[in-house]
Design brief:
EC 3.2.1.-, 513 residues, polysaccharide degradation, 4-stranded antiparallel beta sheet, single chain, 33 strands, 9 helices, glycosidase, mainly beta, carbohydrate metabolism, 1,4-Beta-D-Glucan Cellobiohydrolase I, Chain A, 2 domains, 10-stranded mixed beta sheet
Length: 513
């Protein structure tokens, strides 16, 4: 927990000195339909929307058009301190398509990496909304989350991310009355790295000791960061992918002094690179299941599992092949412990609460985040190449052996100036069914989970198996089986283990429940 003095400094502002709302551009959230499904396959459409994060928005004077923040620098006359800046400056509405390259139609959402307009915009971060003023809150314990995605247009160094953050439903408005913008304008972001590049935290400007980044024309870091639990369901480009729980042992979402925020609470070495799909040019379904110790929505998070469905074929997450790590294909406490030991790392995952801490965040509710970004700090080498760059690539956890059948991304690459300026790279999220114009589907599934000894064997994930063309050979009608049909042309087993029934989960697969 952070010292009290550090927390008070950004919260004791008068109501008059509040983070303001601009009126130059109307804020109209793009509509996005998603679904809630029951275990028997019955699905209900939800009329949601998405909102752009506050950090991307035009920040200007409340009475005119003067920028409070230009490039990566604050206007010192308007923003001499956190509360004065909050009083002087307003977050404005967004032109989602024209300025930020965000397009939503029905069930589809498409994010452009670079959008050229009056100014050039790079990347975006959006949140799923339940209403005009509150984020949708997902409680994931003993639930499934399913989405379809195509990252074939995302090359080396880029990241199309879909993850959950332990944000407040209202963006922090009720906790911090100086925040007048709230979720409607995308405020309240936090993650396990305690990001210090946020312009506003808890309704006050993060201007103290702000330092412009030398290798980014738009970013900098302030004295404070915003910390919370984070579950990376999907971080990927056309070469590599990972899913990672990032527990954070901070008790709340306070602003953190730089000396603390500089020590991230995330655990990148616990990332679980995933089984890749059979072709980089085709859409595929990703299904993540968050299992609990007692198979209820109030139990302790014990395992995170992942499968894929592509072209009617079920693809199991690939198995580990790392000395010292048991062979299996899911995230458990034992996997993370063994992986840390095998890689010679400190077990920060355990230090910050492990799966239990992550599960507690799921119980309270987490916000869905969707983004496309590049990594000007490490050039995304941790995802798709060798990292650290000065380490022996043959050591566990350094070289991307999950890319062994393909050319890996360059180990040493320049910051992505060429990609930013020369290519409009897109991150489209595509249909659950390819023959209809629906391009987005979420599933929160009330799943009847049989006893863990039967459907959740002690297995652990592997580095990505690159572009496998068929399901793993071990999909058999035994105690480990969870899939009993992969749609048309399915040649795998159709029987389930004793005590479970083959139940339809949509057009492309059925599962043993």
């Amino acid at each position: 927990m952070f010292p009290a003095a550090a927390l008070i400094s950004l919260s004791l502002a008068a109501f008059a000195r509040a983070q303001q709302i601009g009126t130059q551009t109307p804020e109209v959230h793009p509509s996005l339909t998603w679904q809630t499904c029951t275990a028997d396959g019955t699905c209900t459409d939800n009329d949601g929307s998405v909102v752009l994060d506050a950090n991307w928005r035009w920040l200007h004077t409340t009475s005119g058009y003067t920028n409070c923040y230009t490039g990566n620098t604050w206007d010192a006359s308007l923003c001499p301190d956190p509360t004065t800046c909050a009083s002087n400056c307003a977050l404005d509405g967004a032109d989602y398509t024209g300025t930020y390259g965000v397009t939503a139609t029905g069930n589809s959402l498409k994010l452009n990496f670079v959008t050229d307009g009056a100014n050039t915009n790079v990347g975006s971060r959006l949140y799923l909304m339940a209403s005009n003023t509150e984020y949708e809150m997902f409680k994931l314990l003993n639930q499934e989350f399913t989405f379809d995605v195509d990252v074939s247009n995302l090359g080396c160094g880029l990241n199309g991310a879909l993850y959950f953050s332990e944000m407040d439903a209202d963006g922090g408005m009720s906790k911090y009355p100086t925040n007048k913008a709230g979720a409607q304008y995308g405020t309240g972001y936090c993650d396990s790295q305690c990001p210090r590049d946020l312009k506003f935290i808890n309704g006050a400007a993060n201007v103290l000791n702000w330092t412009a980044d030398a290798n980014s024309a738009n970013s900098g870091t302030g004295e404070y960061g915003s910390c919370c639990n984070e579950m990376d369901v999907w971080e990927a480009n056309s070469f590599s992918a990972a899913y990672t729980p990032h527990p954070c042992s901070v008790d709340a979402r306070p602003s953190a002094p730089a000396t603390i925020a500089a020590t991230p609470t995330d655990t990148p070495e616990s990332a679980t690179p995933t089984a890749a799909t059979s072709t980089r040019s085709a859409w595929a379904t990703r299904r993540s299941t968050f299992l609990t110790s007692d198979n209820t929505t109030t139990g302790t998070l014990s395992e995170i599992r992942r499968i894929y469905v592509q072209n009617g074929k079920v693809i199991q997450n690939s198995n580990t092949n790392i000395a010292g790590v048991d062979t299996a294909n899911s995230i458990t406490e034992d996997f993370c412990t063994q992986q840390k030991t095998a890689f010679g790392d400190t077990n920060d995952f355990e230090t910050h609460g492990g799966l239990q801490q992550m599960g507690e965040a799921f119980a309270k509710g987490v916000v869905l985040v969707l983004s496309v970004w590049d990594d000007y700090a490490a050039n995304m080498l941790w995802l798709d190449s060798d990292y650290p760059t000065d380490a022996d690539a043959s050591l566990p956890g350094v070289g991307p052996r999950h890319l062994r059948h393909h050319v890996r991304c360059p180990r040493r690459r320049r910051v992505l100036r060429g990609q930013r300026l020369g290519h409009v790279l897109k991150h489209p999220l595509r249909p659950h069914w390819l023959h209809v114009q629906l391009v987005w589907r979420f599933v929160r599934r009330q799943r009847r989970v049989p006893h863990l000894d039967r459907v959740c064997p002690r297995r652990y994930p592997d580095q990505v198996r690159s572009m496998v063309s068929a399901p793993d050979a071990d999909i058999t009608a035994d105690a480990d089986q969870t899939i009993c049909s992969g749609g048309q042309g399915w040649t795998g087993p159709t029987a389930c283990a004793s005590g479970s029934t083959c139940t339809s989960s949509g057009q492309y697969y059925s599962q043993c429940l």
